[in-house]
Amino acid sequence: MAEASVGASSKKRLGILISGRGSNMAALVEAAGAPDCPYTVALVASDKPEAAGLAWAAERGVPTFAQSPKGMPKADYEAKIDAALRDAGVEAIALAGYMRLLSDDFVSRWRGRIVNIHPSLLPKYKGLDTHARAIEAGDAEAGASVHIVTEELDGGDVLGQARVAILPGDTADSLAARVLAEEHQLYPKTLAAWLCG
Ligand code: GRF
After folding, report:
1. pLDDT (tens digit, 9 = 90+) per residue, 72-121?
2. pLDDT tens digit string along 142-167?
3. 183 touches ligand 1 (CB under 6 Å)
4. Atom 7 in ligand 1: which residue has the minimum CA distance?
5. Closest CA to 161 of 195, 136, 193
6. Number of separate domains in the chain
7. I need a surface site. Which of 78, 86, 162, 168 has the fewest CB within 10 A?
8. At 139, is the secondary structure helix, strand, or coil?
């Protein structure tokens, strides 16, 4: 018997927000090519028009949107992002290296429908420089977490984690590279399970 696949019309429409290279976004887009993936990428949006990830997505035919926040109130900038997401019919948002804090107002308008990937084993090391802090603390392992976005920075429920051993001689960069490879597996898998749940 043929395996059941998720019909195109029943797939959730995902918006992805990025600020830079977008390797996690690329992993999400590539995973969306599988017939049984429960989401389709409806929009990749960035606060940086020059973000490498935007060009990568556009080359693959994924709709893109860029809006710099420069020179405008945060509320106006977010209103433009929000409108682009809604125009694209987005139902859930994945943050993938989006380096801007979302306002409480934006989070509340998308309550429970935004996820993020953070490069630490939350609740440890919220915020920046996670790998350096894990090495400095003498931790045996580091990793990444996919979590629901709330008003608290890196504070929402954790949906999934990947763990990576910290090796003797690791630098923040060498550790980050191994964690990133795990992120690319973790994010599509966790997002799919969450959307199906
Ligand atoms: C990743 O390490 C992710 O965990 C963090 O920002 C980085 C983004 O990398 N939130 P990329 O743009 O997805 O390559």
Report:
1. 999 999 999 999 999 999 999 999 999 999 999 999 999 999 999 999 99
2. 999 999 999 999 999 999 999 999 99
3. yes
4. 97
5. 193
6. 2
7. 168
8. coil
